[in-house]
Every structure is written in C-alpha cells, then in structure tokens.
Amino acid sequence: MIVPDSVDGALILSIIDFFLSIVMISGIGFILSLFPLFNRLGRVDEEKIKKGGH
Amino acid sequence: MIEQTLSFMQALLDQTGIEHFWWGNLVMIAIGATMIYLAISKHYEPLLLIGIGFSCIISNVPGSDLILPGGLFNYAYQGVALLIIPPLIFFGVGAMTDFGPMIANPKLVVLGAAAHLGIFVALIGAKALGFTINEAGAIGIIGGADGPMAIFVTMKLAPHLLPQISVAAYSYMALMPLIQPPVMKLLTSKQERLIVMKQNRQVSRLERIIFPVVIGVIVNLFFPPVAPLITMLMLGNLFKEVLVTDRLAKTAANGLMNVIIIILTVAIGSTMAADKFLTVKTVEIVALGLVAFVFGTASGVLGAKIMNLFLKDKINPLLGSAGIASVPIAARVAHMVALRENKENYLIYHAMGPNLAGVFGTAISGGIMLALLGVK
Prior knowledge:
heterodimer, A: mainly alpha, elongated, B: mainly alpha, 22 helices, about 70% helix
C-alpha cells in the first residue's frame, strides 16, 4: 500500500486523485478538440458501408 | 413406534432451515419484498430491483443451497467476483451509447471529473468513521454514480462490502431525480438556469469510428487497473458506429445485456445475507453514499460556474450536475430542471456530453485510486 491507512492518508489520496482526474480528463478533452482534424482525411460514405453490413 | 416417528420427524426438521431462521432473515425478506414492490409500483429500476429483491429473499431462507458453493446463485456471484460481469455490462452500454455529444463539445468533458468531489468526501468520511482505507475507497466510489464501476472497484478493494455498496449505488441512482434538483437550485440563480446553450456541431462518422479506438488506447496506456471496463465500453461502441456489425451491436445491447443483468442482479441479491447486511456499517455506507451524491452534484454545478468565469459563451451550470455519470439519468435531471424554468430550453443533448464524460471521470478516479492503494 502506497498511501497510509489513516485519515491523513485518505486526505492525501483524495487530493491527488481529484486533481489528477481533472488533469487527465482535461487531456481527453484536449484530444477530443483535435478530432475535427480527422475530417481532413476524407469522408466516410455511410450508404456504401451499410450495403456491405452484416 | 412413536419414538421412531418422532426421531424421523426430527431428522426431517434438521434437513430444513427452519431451526436457523432468525429475525434478521425476516427483515431482509421484507427488504427484498420492498424492492420488488418499488420496482413494480414506482418503476424504480425494475430491471435491477426485481432480480436483486428476489434473490435477497431466497438467500435469507436458511437452508437454501443456491448461495452455497455449487449453487446457481453462487455461480452468478463468481461472475462478479472474477470481474467478468461488470466489463460485459459496459460492453452492452457501449453498443447502445451515442458519444456524439461528448465529441462535439470537448470543453464540457472536464465536468466529468469536477462532479466527482463526492467520491472523496465520502472516502474521507468513511475513513474518519473507522473503515480501512481500502473500504473507504470502495465506499467513496459510490459517488461515481456508476454501478458496474462501483462493483468493479469494490471487488478489488473490499469485496465483503459488495452488497451494501452495490445496493446503495443503484438505489441512489434511481433516486437522483429526488436528490439532485434541490442541490442544483440551491447553487444556481434563476438567470443561470435560463441560459440557453449554442447548438453543437455535427460529428462525422469518421470521428465516431476513431473515438473508441483512441480512447481504448489511452485508457489501456494510462489506467490499466480499470481498462477492462472502458475497453469493453469502447468495443461495444465500435460495433455500433462502424455500421457493418449491426447484428453484434444489437446482440450486445439487447440479448447479451439482458442475460448479464439477470446474472448481476442475482449475484448482488444473493450476497445480502442478514448476518452480513444488518450491521451498523451498512447504515454508515448508505449515509455516506447519500453524502457522495449530494457533494458530487454540488461540485459539478460549482465546476460549471467556475468555467463560466473564463468562458465567453456561458454554459448552463445545470450541466455540471450531469457530470456525476449515471447515464442517462443525471442528464435527464439537468434537462428537466432547465425545462421547468423555460419550456423551450432543451438541455438533454448538451447534458449527455458531461454525463458520458462522467463515466470516464469515475473510471479515471477509480484507476488512480487503485494505483495509489497499490491494487492491480
């Protein structure tokens, strides 16, 4: 166990976890903000895809 | 002759569970019956409560072999204990979820983490009440308002608390329309609740197909402890979005999901034996779960208000409450509260963004928690 089994440990765990979560999810948000760039690769023809579906 | 008959009768009686019946069993049977009643009459999570309620009743009938090793309910529990069932639920959820709102408005994604302060308030509260740090972590994750994730983290940190935590998590998720609105109204002004959101952009099919692949890679790279859940969520979503595997997507979202729900509910209910469930700890866990939901809702709303300090186009702070996860209940609550103020303010599509991000927020919080506690 990395975090001590005490109220102080719980506090430290909470602070680290909460702020790291915000940082990590902001990172995911940043990556998602780049998603429109994928559209420069081209357009997917949905009708054509559906024809070959199973 | 009479003596022989009496000894036969005694032997027969010994075979039954009547001798071991105590008032605790009666209380748990009443709880199970109440769950079935609420599911039927109030429509509170019927898909979950019917199975949980019934297996709770049966597992409190002394002598029932179903919950013992080799019994069918016990096999169902093994599916949960071996962490097979929760990822399969996520698989089904992924196949029925449209992540478009989350992709379309990435700035709202941060609300998926902001709304999880409740996890940590409950965690610290649980530790202060004398739970071990692992138990406190499992209790805290109730605030993530995500049933499979709560089960997953609990099975890793404190499997003996599974019945209390899963019942608290699912009960509060069903009660969110009652728990959240007072908190949301308390923390927002009428003017804020009236904010109308700008229409989101269209998300292309290519983006929708790339999304599960990218998230799958990120989660496995950064959060291996919770990767099975999110990976299966993304696989289910990929089946849905590629448009060429309709059969698989439909199976994951319908047939398979239904089977998994049956197994899950039976597994949870079968762990609700009176001697384990009727304790002071259960009352404390249920109370901490409520604290987690209230603080999660509050921190989400406050997070959205803080964002508004920096944004040119203000967002409706009610969206913050949806970041608590519990898809799509929390998004629906945000929508309903906004609709009460302005009958033409439809927040549901916008609220789905932070709501879905809340699933990732819970997974990330859970993953970091497991890593910090040294649990793989």
